[in-house]
Amino acid sequence: MLVKFNIFENNKEWNATIHQLNSDVLVRHTLINGHTGCFNLGFSYCEDSLIGNIYDDSNNKLGEFTVIH
């Protein structure tokens, strides 16, 4: 599946092809490509809208991701 990531702070966007949507995969892609400076990441995901949010350890929204297909 294709996932589009967007980090708000540095306006960083990228696409990644992943085989399974889970927090380990999301953390890896966000740490490597997002350059957030935060290592304690949290995620939420809505299966109806196919949109998820990326949070730091203080529960501030850092960005979002969208499952394209």
Structure characterization notes:
- The protein is of the alpha+beta class and 69 residues long.
- The protein is built from one helix and five strands.
- It has one helix at 23-34, and strands at 2-7, 12-17, 42-46, 51-55, 61-67.
- Strands 2-1-5-4-3 form a five-stranded antiparallel beta sheet, covered by helices on one side.
- A hairpin with a 5-residue loop joins strand 4 (51-55) and strand 5.
- It starts with a strand and ends with a strand.
- The model has no long low-confidence stretch (mean pLDDT 93).
Quick structural overview:
The protein is of the alpha+beta class and 69 residues long. 17% of the residues lie in helices and 42% in strands.
| Elements, N to C (H/E) | EEHEEE
Instruction: Determine Rg (CA atoms, Å).
Output: 11 Å
Low-confidence parts, pLDDT < 50 over ≥5 residues?
none
User: What's the pLDDT, averaged over the residues?
Assistant: 93
Task: Characterize the main sheet.
Answer: 5 strands, antiparallel
Properties at a glance:
1 helix; alpha+beta; single chain; 69 residues; 5 strands
Secondary structure: elements and pairs:
Blueprint: E1 2-7, E2 12-17, H1 23-34, E3 42-46, E4 51-55, E5 61-67
